[in-house]
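Notebook entry, structure prediction.
Reason for the run: the old model in the group folder had no record of what sequence produced it. Starting over properly, with the input documented here first.
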Amino acid sequence: MPATAEAPREKTFLLARPEARALEWLARRVPARVLPDHLTLLGIVAAVGIAIAYVLSNGDSAWLWAASGLLVVHWLGDSLDGTLARVRRIERPKYGYYLDHLVDAIATAIIGIGLGLSPFLLLATGMVLVIVYLVLSINTYLETQTLGVFRLGYGRLGPTEARLGLIAINTAVALGVPLGFEVAGVGLTGMDVVVLGGVGIMAIALAVRALHTLRTLAEREPAGRVRPAA
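New structure, fully documented this time:
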């Protein structure tokens, strides 16, 4: 089985192929003085900016345009760093694996908290989103360790699709689409409903994949039978 950090990547989500081509095209045009770590730093700075923009949207929904723009910047920093390293043949598998996933967890928490502090999403909803996303990430890392394959995304949805969905919601809210309503005395927005629906889909995808992984591992390591005492 390949080492965890060097496990082959398996991308099945909807935009995986065009995204990979776009990232390689961009990586070949990045100035030589820009290194993968610079892009990683750009991603985390963009995540902080996204959170700040969501908080500022309490005063003016126009900040949602800034949040959407920074989501694009976050995609660039988060996705291009590894491609740049591979194109230049300067990969550091263990270093990159550790740094990438540490930064990803931090950025997810920051963005989730920022969303929860905006007027468009309950803080509880934001925290549920962060928790489920991190559980999915942990499952991915466990699969990498036990199966030797790093499977990015669940089904046809991955981080890029999630960003596009968030940008679409930001755009609708910024344009004034009415998304607020009340359920059982609790004020909700369309963003709450979309996010909670997405969380439900993520939870189902996790359960299906976990069962499949356990079945695969059980086939590789059949349960032994206890021998009767002599």
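Summary: The two ends are 38 Å apart (CA to CA).
The old model has been moved to the deprecated folder.
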